[in-house]
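As a representative case, we now present a protein record of this kind.
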Amino acid sequence: MQILTPDEPPDKARGKENGASRSNCQNGGNDTSRCNGNAATNGNGASNMANGHAAANGHSRANGLAWTNGHAASNGEVMVNGFFPANGLARTNGSTAMNGAKVNGCVGTNGMARANGNGANGSSESNGTQGGIGTLDMFILDEATPFIPAIAPEMDFERKRASDRSLPLKERLEAYEVIIDSEVGDTSMTRARNIEREIGLRQVYLKFEGGNPTGTQKDRIAFAQCRDALRRGYDEITVASCGNYGSALALAAALAGLRCIVFIPKSYHTKRDVEMNATGAEIRFTPGTYEDAVVESSLEADKNNYYDANPGGINTQLQLSAYGSIAYEIYDDLRDAPAAVAVPVSNGTTLAGIHRGFLSLFRRGKTSRIPTIIAGSSYRKNPIVQAYISNSLTCEDLNKETIKETAVNEPLISWHSIDGDLALMAIRESRGWAGYASDKKLMSYSRLIREREGLNVLPASTAGLIALVDKHNKEPFPGDRYVVIMTGRKV
């Protein structure tokens, strides 16, 4: 992730290199000012301030350029529209966290700090302890846009309350509920008129889960699990993940003041371990597949009395309920159930939860029907779709040796779908269907949505839309309303 720098000569845009510092308030160029020991880092302009005041022209620079609306907070804090700049740097009382997050005076894993203007080239000199979990001062999403924080700045007070272990549990839970209500879910749903023209089907709506804090629907269950762990008095939480769920749980746990341990299969490709580190999570790479990592995580939870946040078992109902909220939000927008809902599937929990939500709405007389449920997944790499196509009564495990992960299909593939039977039942009870999508098609539809609708979605998120369109091309649908779940943004 890069932060743009202004177009100006290097001698004006950059300060001293390799940690050399300027003092006595020497000018660092037309738009920079440095004094009292604030040091440059690796040749990029240092975080700039003069006795706590903003540099000239309202600019302040932390390894690049941070726009401050003409202001820089005192004590060396550089604020960007009320929150800290990205590129892995946060300024708190003159300290800088690099490739990591400053956590209540503690620096998370792989995070390096420079306190009181000391240190250069990423050396760590902080008054806190390394690897601690506390209240976050800053955290940055891997490859996300630089000036967007994971949670709104106005939640800072609630964040501190929720993660403060010295406070009564009741007060922490109240604060955490406020964060969940304000930040998780209630994602946007828009009519995709340009996609409608492209595929020849009217009233297609895109439910974009990328609006959640870490950019996927996984935030819904991550925050629900951490709330449950907090309520039941746990201090640690563990999960196995290939990326998205681990990133979501790491953030949710940090906001709740919980220690988080994430197990990741060594063979899987993910850039989201950077985010997990930045929020203070502990990452343990394990041999084997994702399913093997789930076993390792669960054994660790049993051995050490950690909260087990993995799918399946006693967590199933909680996770189905969390995903059921997607159905309620669709109803809030449409005031009835759509004709069909298309969902990407891996373990099947998201799809099963959405179906259960619509069942609840129908039973309570809120909707006139239950929508047809459509599942899409990676070509021949998902037991749910395979069971539907082969007309099997239940999901059967696939040969794990034939499951090849790519950077595109990783969120979808599975040789054993943990909630697969629930998803398969939802598809059949709603008279739905399931279909495959190749990596090439996933990337093509992701590009189509970006170009036609302006949404930068994860390619795997388009699997449900592909299944919907493929069926429509064979058997044209009647005029009605169709909802497609876009499970994540591309970061």
